[in-house]
Amino acid sequence: MLNQLKRLGGDSLLYALMNVGTKLIAFLMIPIYTSYLGREQFGALGTIDSFTSMMTFLVIFGTDSALAYYYFDKDHKGNKIEYVRNVLLFRFYVALSLLILSVLFGPALSYAITGTRGFELVLQLSFIVLLLEALITLVLTYFRYEFLSKRVVIMTVLRLGLVALLSYAFLRFISPDVEMVIYGRMAAALAIIVFLLPQLKRFAAFKFNGKLMKELLTYAAPLVPASMAFWVISQSNKLFITHFEGLESVGLYEAALRFATVITLLTSSVQMAWRPYSMSIKDKPNAKSIFRNVYVLIFAVGMFGLMGVATFVPFIFEAFLGEDFHEASMYIPLLSLGTFLNFYYLIISVGLFIEKKTKPISFYFGIAAVISVILNLILIPLFSLWGAAAAVTVAYGFACVSIFLRSQKEYYVPTPVGSIMFMFVTGLLSIAAVQYVLQFSELSIWYVLIPWLFFALTNGGVLATLRRKGRVEETA
């Protein structure tokens, strides 16, 4: 088991380094975007990105999870490349269809998404980027499944670096308009396509393998409603904010949301490594023991990361952004919690993927999406952006708990649920105390040491107790 955990740790470390680089790039671009675009155009960029992210779910259509299963399934080893070819062809056709629709219905889409006309070109350019990135993502997924982590890291960092460099250059030297950001993304994607042409040629196909495609879609289709529900939870609140308060408020919320994703420095690297890793060890006799340990350790690290976000991000936020955006810093801890819960369900739902019973994920995310819409309608008019942040977090919390309980029924992992809940409650109290000291009181910043001490004693004590009881094994 030690070797298996080292393998997950090694891949996660590489992806962590990659994500540190890419998130740092994205972080440094926020003050550039806000200074050149202002609240309204930055809000428009946020709503358009939200819409195209929903379209991304349609392009992927759950085929990432299906490909992971069949790629590592011992009964389908001979068809690995054929599965990749079918997924690539499927994503290309879906992305191309969406691009055509964006050209045909550009003005109507612009009004529906941003509440005004004039962003048709931005939408169409965004769909071109979506098409290019559909090809890039599939090749990088293949690299991940072959455990070619270094290639994934290099290509990903290179692409994000090019996006930042070109977007900044276009904004500064051509025009301070939102279109320049999308032109930068498109040029960067085309450059990466050139590097990946040998692999794309290898995966190129002109027709589907009906049998394999049916297997892929049968596995993937139940996950699509979950993906759409995920979009409703994470992104639709921007549309509600646009309707209730306008694009300037969306720009403020977008700034907070982008800073909140700093927590993905900890989560996304593990997420990228987790799916192929968990599928590759599912038949090992000690798999459940490994999963149990991962559940606890990842949760502990996540709560520590949230404490760090609550403590340090507001200072960084105020140092980097103009005064018009300072207000957004107060929403970051709550949004970061929602981001972490959305990640954590992927870890604790492993049983559903192993047993190929993924329909409950769509069911529970569907309920969570309904909860999110209801909360957005009620809370945004009452509490403005606090309401939007609360709606996201509550919806993710419901989905996370519900999916875990169902996964346990299908594939039981002996998890210390009581200990995790205690860590969650004490962690929330600590985070709330940090935020109160820094943003809602006149107390000295040194008072944050009190909630940090409380957090260390409670969460550290739980981990020490579990270790003594033998529930968390020594991994060093």
From TrEMBL:
Topology of the protein relative to the lipid bilayer: Multi-pass membrane protein
A single cellular component GO annotation: plasma membrane
Compartment annotation: Cell membrane
Bilayer-spanning residue ranges: 12-33, 53-72, 92-113, 125-145, 152-174, 180-197, 217-235, 255-274, 294-317, 329-354, 361-379, 385-405, 417-438, 444-466
A Pfam family annotated for this UniProt entry: Polysacc_synt
UniProt entry tagged with the keyword Membrane: yes
Keywords per UniProt: Cell membrane, Membrane, Transmembrane, Transmembrane helix
Protein name, per record: Oligosaccharide flippase family protein
